[in-house]
C-alpha cells in the first residue's frame, strides 16, 4: 500500500513546462505531494529537477512520463499514479497544445482532440476512486478537478457531432478551439456527476502565455501569437494555483475562471445536452480503443 501521510496530493499534467511546471513548483513549495507529468523526455527530466529544488521539507515529488493522446499510455499512467498514492486531492488537467498538421494516433484519434480532451477524460475517470477516497475524509469542496481551457473556445460555434475530432475537415485552429470547448463542457458535466461526493470541478483561462505553445502550431497561429502581448507562466498559473488551494475557490463548481474571477463562458459551453452527449461520445471512443474507462479500485 502506498504511503498514506497527511500530505495533500496533486496530479499535474503538462508539468514539464509553462504553467504546469509553475503550479507543480508552487504546490511542492507548500508541502504537497505532487505527481507531475511530462511527455518529452529531456524537458521532463529538467522539470523534475526544478520541481524537486522548489520542494519544502516534508513535500514529495514523483514524475511520470507519457502521452495523453494515447489512451493506452494514459491508462498506464493512471495505474502508476494509483501505485504512488491512495488519494488525490487535486487533479490539474493542464496539458494541451496545437499541431501544425493533422495527426491520427494508432488508436484512431486526432491528436489535438485526444491530447487536449480525451486523454484527460480517461485520466480523470481512472483517478475518480482516488479523488473520492480523498473527499471521503475531507471537507466538501477541498478536493478539486481543474481544467485549463482557453478563450479559444469562444471561437467555436458548437460541437460538430458528425466530425467530433475534426478528422474530415481539419484546420489547426478550429481543432484546437473545439477541444477547448470540450474542456469546459467536460468540466461542467463532471461537476454535476461528482457533486454528491463533495468534489468540485472548475475550468479556467490562463491568458496568452509566454511559452513554447505556439511553436507547435501552423503558420497562421505563429503569426497571431507574434502580435499579442503574452504574460509570464508565473502570472498565468496564478489562477490555477488559486483554484487548487484557496478555500473560497472550493465554494463554486462547474465554473469558468480568469484572473481569479468567475466569468461566463461562451453560450455553446453552457449547453447541458451537449455536455452530457460529449461524455457519452468520449466513453464510446475509449471503448473503441479497447481501453477500460475505469481501472483498479482502491481503499481510502
Question: In words, what does this structure look like?
Answer:
With 300 residues, the protein is α/β, with parallel strands linked by helices. It has a single domain (9-288), classed as Rossmann fold (3-Layer(aba) Sandwich), CATH 3.40.50. It has helices at 18-29, 41-54, 71-84, 111-136, 172-194, 219-225, 233-245, 272-288, and strands at residues 9-12, 33-38, 60-65, 90-93, 143-148, 199-204, 256-258, 261-262. Strands 3-2-1-4-5-6-7-8 form an eight-stranded mixed sheet, with helices on both faces. β5 (143-148), α5 (172-194) and β6 form a beta-alpha-beta unit. α1 (18-29) packs parallel to α2, α3 runs parallel beside α4 and α5 (172-194) crosses α8. The protein starts with 8 loop residues before the first strand and ends in a 12-residue tail after the last helix. The model has no long low-confidence stretch (mean pLDDT 92).
Give descriptors for this structure.
8-stranded mixed sheet, 300 residues, globular, Rossmann fold, alpha/beta
In short:
The chain has 300 residues and is an alpha/beta fold. It has a single domain (9-288), classed as Rossmann fold (3-Layer(aba) Sandwich).
Overall mean pLDDT: 92
Major β-sheet, in short?
A: 8 strands, mixed
Strands ordered across the widest β-sheet: 3-2-1-4-5-6-7-8
Looking at this structure, what is the CATH superfamily? NAD(P)-binding Rossmann-like Domain
- State the helicity in percent bands: 40-55%
> Number of helix segments?
8
Top-tier CATH class? Alpha Beta
The CATH topology turns out to be Rossmann fold
Overall tally of domains: 1
Structural class: alpha/beta
CATH architecture name: 3-Layer(aba) Sandwich
Amino acid at each position: 500500500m502506498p504511503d498514506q501521510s497527511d500530505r495533500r496530493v496533486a496530479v499535474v499534467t503538462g508539468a514539464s513546462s509553462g504553467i504546469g511546471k509553475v503550479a507543480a513548483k508552487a504546490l511542492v513549495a507548500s508541502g504537497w505531494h505532487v505527481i507531475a507529468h511530462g511527455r518529452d523526455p529531456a524537458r521532463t527530466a529538467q522539470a523534475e529537477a526544478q520541481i524537486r529544488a522548489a520542494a519544502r521539507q516534508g513535500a514529495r515529488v514523483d514524475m511520470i512520463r507519457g502521452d495523453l493522446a494515447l489512451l493506452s499510455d494514459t491508462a498506464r499512467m493512471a495505474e502508476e499514479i494509483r501505485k504512488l498514492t491512495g488519494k488525490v486531492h487535486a487533479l490539474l488537467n493542464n496539458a494541451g497544445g496545437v499541431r501544425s498538421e493533422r495527426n491520427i494516433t494508432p488508436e484512431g484519434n486526432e491528436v489535438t482532440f485526444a491530447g487536449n480532451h480525451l486523454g484527460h477524460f480517461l485520466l480523470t475517470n481512472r483517478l475518480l476512486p482516488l479523488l473520492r477516497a480523498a473527499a471521503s475524509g475531507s471537507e466538501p469542496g477541498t478536493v478539486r478537478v481543474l481544467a485549463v481551457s482557453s478563450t479559444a473556445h469562444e471561437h467555436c460555434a458548437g460541437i460538430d457531432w458528425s466530425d467530433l475530432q475534426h478528422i474530415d475537415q481539419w484546420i489547426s485552429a478550429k481543432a484546437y478551439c473545439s477541444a477547448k470547448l470540450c474542456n469546459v463542457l467536460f468540466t461542467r458535466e463532471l461537476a454535476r456527476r461528482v457533486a454528491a461526493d463533495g468534489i468540485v470541478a472548475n475550468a479556467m483561462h490562463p491568458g496568452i502565455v509566454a511559452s513554447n505553445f505556439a511553436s507547435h502550431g501552423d503558420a497562421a497561429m505563429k503569426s497571431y501569437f507574434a502580435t499579442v502581448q503574452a504574460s509570464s507562466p508565473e502570472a498565468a498559473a496564478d489562477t490555477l494555483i488559486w483554484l487548487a488551494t484557496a478555500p473560497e475557490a472550493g465554494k463554486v463548481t462547474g465554473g469558468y475562471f480568469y484572473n481569479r474571477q468567475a466569468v461566463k463562458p461562451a453560450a455553446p459551453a453552457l449547453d447541458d445536452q451537449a455536455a452530457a452527449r460529449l461524455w457519452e461520445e468520449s466513453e464510446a471512443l475509449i471503448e473503441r480503443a479497447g481501453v477500460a474507462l475505469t481501472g483498479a479500485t482502491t481503499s481510502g
